[in-house]
Amino acid sequence: MDTHDPSRAESAPPPPSFGAESGRLRDFPLAELLWQFHCDARSGCLRLRKGALEKTLWLSGGVPVFARSNEAGDRLTDRLLARGLLTRAQYDQAQDLLARSTGKRIGEVLLENGLIRERELNEALGEQILRMIESMFSWTEGSWSFEPGPSADRITLDRSTAAILMSAARHRIPLRRLWDAIGDHHQLPRLDHEHRSDDGRAELTASLMLEPSESAWLARLDGSRSLAELLDDFDVDEHELLALLYTLRLLGHLQLELGGVPALAFQR
């Protein structure tokens, strides 16, 4: 059931021009920032800072290819230990070896000392990078900056930028922020013509890695029912629907119409 009061939404400053190479996350959230860089096929380093914390995402042609973080919970060895790919003794050995190595990455140290297989390392590293990227979407405060240039490190991730954004909306973006982005609950969600067919909906389901319950919404986004009416259905998962609409709209696959007139540009 819809409990959002659009009149309570705070007004937001207009998003910065993308001639700028830095800004505040409160003015331009990471999801919108990352999708704009993706559409512009930007290559370089996107750096987020919040106090002493720093997370860095490398893009190649607008596609995330690597990430780093100085947050303790983002350490690769901790993830390997949690997955059972390292024993506690191997974990302690890896930390000791890393402390005595100069200029080497933890992955290199693990491989050189036979503590992990290359295939296992690559799988774990890809998973860890995705976890780091997704954790960035929780930040609403802090600053961002972008430095153009190539990435020295590169990992092929198992999901598209669009699927990363969908996962972030699903798991990391709070309901209130989704409502602020969507706006008026009387709007009529209408999927773009290209994706209204069975094949079009199947393509969206695959590219966004939608869950079955999320995919089931696509056929209902035909502009005939308002968001409030959709939410009035029995046992609706409000966050699930809002996350899907947010992502589809951000990607340009959805219009939100009010009184038959398309709503204004993406708002927060």
TrEMBL record:
Entry-linked InterPro entries:
PatA-like_N, T2SS_E_N_sf
SUPFAM superfamilies documented for this protein? EspE N-terminal domain-like
Q: Which domain of life is it from?
A: Bacteria
PatA-like N-terminal domain: residues covered = 22-171
List every stretch annotated Disordered: 1-22
Q: Which Pfam families match?
A: DUF4388 (PF14332)
Please report the name of this protein according to its UniProt entry.
Answer: DUF4388 domain-containing protein
Q: Which organism is it from?
A: Nannocystis pusilla
